[in-house]
User: What shape does this take?
Amino acid sequence: MLRIVTVMLMVVCGICLGAPESNYIYARAAAAKLKGEEALTAFIALADRPFSAAQKADALEQASALAFEQKKYDQAMELAKKIPIPSISKAAQIRILAGRGEWDSLLAQYKDEKIDDWWPNYLNGEAYSCRGSAYAIKGDGTNAAADLRKAADLTCYDGNGQGLLLIRLGNVYRDLLKDDTRALAAYREAYQTWNLYKRLAAAIEASGILMRQNKLDEALAELKTIELDKVTYPDWRGRLLAAYASILAKQGQKAEAIARYREAAGLKDMDASQKTAYEKILRDLESETAVK
Assistant: This one.
């Protein structure tokens, strides 16, 4: 999405400024058709041509991303630092640090960064997401929650990304801040996004909190916010069936729980380790039931 918005910005700049800037659109399209090292070289060359600062920024951003994909991490960072628009340069650098899991370096350089002041502001959501992830991994729940909240609010154009951010926010509230109420609110907010599987993941997390609180009927109701018939991807269908089964088992409804685990274990094309886990739980539950 970031690249799409960047290209739109470049198009506008090209139309407004005229030649030679308008030729950037065609030169960029040609570079984008290339692969690997050729594409990287082409975008670096574009940045050396007499285009506008915005277009040079786009060329260097694409070059940096390509270098990163090719595991040329030092070159990727060098190119990111050359981007002439400060916010785009910083966003590219943050993206690289996050992509490499260099969380200490990310926070050392950008913990005091005033991301709200950046222009263009379409970059802000991703930057907050990366910094929020760094805070979360380092165990700073307060700052992680603040950044992930902003990231989720700024990512309203992308239901899939927003759903993921809300789940991560819920996890921070639950695991780092020990605040189940806010965790549940974040998970339930994800239900408003369009992606079925993000909604499903959020429902499972919310149900888990309620199950831990021994609110079993409420936990089941949380799962029922997702229509099981629409969940066709085997791994996710298995997770939802297993979530139902675990609650049913705790309620003492062993036969129903066994049926759900059996269905989950019998799904085709499911992750092998997931299938093995369900089969073990099923055997244990069947043995326990047989003894009684």
Notes: Residues 1-18 have pLDDT under 50 and may be disordered. Residues 163 and 286 are 37 Å apart (CA to CA). DSSP finds 16 helices and no strands in the chain. The two ends are 56 Å apart (CA to CA).
